[in-house]
Amino acid sequence: MRAKRLYQITRTFLHYGLNELIPAKWMPWSVRVARVGLFWLPNRHKEKPAGERLRLALESLGPVWVKFGQMLSTRRDLLPPDIALELAKLQDKVKPFSGERAQKLIEKALGLKHIDELFDDFNVTPLASASIAQVHTAKLKHGDDAGADVVIKVIRPDIRDAIDADLSLMETLASVLAKHLPDGRRLKPREVVKEYRKTLLDELDLAREAANAIQLRRNFEDSKLLYIPKVYSDFSRHNVMVMERIDGIPVSDVDTLMTLGVDMKKLAERGVEVFFTQVFRDSFFHADMHPGNIFVAREHPEDPQYLGIDFGIVGTLNREDKRYLAENFLAFFNRDYRKVAELHVDSGWVPAHINVEEFESAIRTVCEPIFNKPLADISFGHVLVNLFNTARRFEMEVQPQLVLLQKTLLYVEGLGRTLYPQLDLWQTAKPFLERWMQEQLGWRAVLRSVKEHAPYWAEKMPEMPTLLYDYLRNQKHQVEQQQLATQAVLAGQRKMVWRLWWGLMSTATLVSTTLLWVTEQNHWLTALSGVATLASVVMSWRKPAK
User: Fold this and answer.
1) Transmembrane ranges (predicted)?
2) Can you give the pTM of this predicted structure?
3) Domain span at residue 3?
C-alpha cells in the first residue's frame, strides 16, 4: 500500500515536472540517475509556470496535499512569491461521499437508532463538502431550540488512515530534503511537516473545534463586529458537530454586497478591528480566516456584521508576545528600527549575542523602500513577512504562534483590500494599538490589575494575621537554623586549621628526626625529636580547644 502510494506521488511529481524546481547541483547523483531511469514519465505540462504545475500536482494528489499547499502558501519566507501566490489559489473542495453513509456515521456517533430521533428534515445531499468533512442540513427536534435550522458537520470515513499514510511519506520526503538540500537547514522541511501534522490532526477533532467556537462566541457575545453560530455541544462528538445554520453572503461575493448597499469601507475596517480585537484583547484568534470561512449578515447593510465558521485552527499569544508584538507594530509606524531590533532581542525571538546595530541596519534596508510608497499602497502583511525573513538571517527561530498570526493577517489584509481597495490598514490599526498600549500601562493597568485580583485578595484577607504570625515564626526558626549552621562552619574551619598546624609540625619534626638519625647525631637529641613527632601526630587528631 505504502509503496503503491509512493509510486503514485513520484509519478505525479514527474508528470508535472516538479523535479525541475530543484537545481540539478542540489540533487545527489543517485536521484539524477533514478530520474533518467524513469524516462517514461516525462513532464506533460512544460508550457505552464512552475507555480501552476505545483498547484495542479497537489490538487491531483488529494486533500492532505491540498491542505499542505495551503499551509505552504502562508510561509512566504520559504517560497518564491510567484509560487506562494499560486498555492494560495488551492481550493479545498472535493467530491462528497454518500449522504446515507454520513447519516450512519452521525447515528453511530450520537447513539441513535435513527436520525429522526433528534433531527427533522435531515438532507442526505450535503450542503458543502471539503477534504476533511462535509456538512448536512437539518432541524432540531427537541429542547429550547426545537425547530431551529442547524448544520451537522461529519468527518469523512477512513480519512485518518489516508492522512497517516500521506503524513508518513511527507516525513520521509522531508528527511531526504533536509539531508541533501544545501539550504535544508534554513528551510527546515522536517519542522514544517511536523507543524502541518499538528494542524491537520487538530482539524480532525470536531470536539476541539466545538470548544474553539464556544470560546469565540463568548468573546464576541452581543458584538456588532462578528457573530459566531451557536454550537450544540450536547450533540457534538469527536467526529460530529452540530451548529446553528447561518444565512449570510460570502464575503468574496462583492457584487452582491454592493447591490445590497453594504457599507464596504466600514466592512473592511471592521475586518481589521475583528483581527486586532481577537489578538490583543482576547489572545485567541481564528487562524483560518480565508474567504470561504467568512460571510456577511444580510441585515443592516449600513452597519455590516461578519459571520464566521470553521474553527479548527485557532492561535493564541501569551502576555509577553502580545506586548512585544504591539510595540513592534508601533515602532514600525514610527520607523524606529532600533526599537524593532531591540524588541526582537528582548523578547528572545533573536539570540542575545546578535549585533543589534547590524540587525537594525538590515531591517532599515528592507523597510525603507516600502515606506517610500503611500501608506495605502503598503501591504502590512508583507512588511511582517519581510521582517521575519530578515530576522531569520539573524538566527531567529520559527515561532509557530507568529506564523499563524502572519497567515491570518495576510488573509485579513487581502480581504480588506478586496472589499475596499483604498483601505489604509496602517491608519486603521494604529489607533487601536495605541489605545491598547495605553490600557496596558499607567493607572488604567493598575486599576484593572486591582479589579482582576480583588476576589483573591478578599479571600486571603481573613488569613492575613495567621499568615503574618507563621511568617514571623518561620523567620525566627530560620535565624536560629542559620546561627547553628554558621557555628558548625566555624567549628569545621577551626578543626581544619588545627589539623593543618599540627600536620605541618609533624612533618617538620619528622624531617628533623630523619636528618638527626642519618647524620648520627646525639642519640638523646634524636630521641627527643622523635618524641616531638609522635606528640605532633597525636595533637593533630585531637579536637581543638573551643
Assistant:
1) 500-518, 524-541
2) 0.69
3) 1-90
